[in-house]
Amino acid sequence: MKSVMIEQRFCGPPKSANGGYVCGLVANHIEGCAEVTLMAPPPLGQRLDIVAGEAGVELRKDETVLAKGRGIHLNIPEIPIVEFAEAEDAVHRSPYDEARHPLPTCFVCGPARAKGDGLRIIPAPLSRPKGKVGALAAPWVPYADLAGGDGPVAREFIWAALDCPSGFAGLGARQLGMTGSERALLGRMSARIDGLPCPGDRCIIVAWPTGRDGRKIFASSALLASNGKVLAAAQATWIVVDRQVQLGERSTAETAER
């Protein structure tokens, strides 16, 4: 068993940790591709335990299971290849600033986070969809403190970088009946990491919607090197929730009772 404490810096909603970052912490204890299901919002600044068992790995707060992870086989075909300049161009079309962003202090996508603090990955539509309807992209140049020593970027930050972009892609999918006003939380994420960038590398994040089943929205995302090589790819399931649940002011169980 290993204990971790998630710093306030790594928040998603203001009161809980970023889902992709948490999935990455759990996946670090699983060999190869991993799938992580979030069971409850992971708290910030509290001791959490990572426990390995026959069925996989769990993240726990005392007796409460916050997340479950397991090894899987993951294949994501037809990943759109986007150039860094195209991603830079896309973000100029983003409708989100601090006033209009649903979670402006999110570690991954919050525009209120200072450069060097949050990742500030805020994807926006490509001028050309690259064969994927609703495809979004954003540039990403990792900071030095995301690496372990002088090495490449730590894997949990790769999971984090792949998280929010898929949410933007899914919630922005008008072809799936989304209006763009919905709010959601990450429910499950699977990822395959084939390569790790180093701090300062010019990277591209691309994301696209893949389907919908009621309140469940499905989307994929990928991390590309500047030469177009796919370094990592992910699939995500997002759950549409009301605003109070997203902010942690009410639980999903309370919502279901209403």
Question: What would the principal axes of the Cα set say about the shape?
Answer: globular
Strand order of the largest sheet: 1-3-4-5-2-8-11-10-9-7-6
User: Rg from C-alpha positions?
Assistant: 17 Å
Report, as a whole number of angstroms, the end-to-end distance: 38 Å
Description:
With 258 residues, the protein is of the alpha+beta class. It is 17% helix and 31% strand. It has helices at residues 19-27, 84-91, 155-171, 243-246, 252-257, and strands at 2-5, 34-38, 47-53, 56-61, 64-71, 124-125, 136-140, 183-193, 203-213, 216-225, 230-241. Strands 1-3-4-5-2-8-11-10-9-7-6 form an eleven-stranded antiparallel sheet. A hairpin with a 2-residue loop joins strand 4 and strand 5 (64-71). Helix 1 packs across helix 3 (155-171). It is globular, with a radius of gyration of 17 Å.
Which SSEs are present, and which pair or pack?
Elements: E1 2-5, H1 19-27, E2 34-38, E3 47-53, E4 56-61, E5 64-71, H2 84-91, E6 124-125, E7 136-140, H3 155-171, E8 183-193, E9 203-213, E10 216-225, E11 230-241, H4 243-246, H5 252-257
Antiparallel strand pairs: 1-3, 2-5, 2-8, 3-4, 4-5, 6-7, 7-9, 8-11, 9-10, 10-11
Helix pairs in contact: 1-3
Notable features of this structure?
17% helix, disordered C terminus, alpha+beta, 258 residues, 11-stranded antiparallel sheet, 11 strands
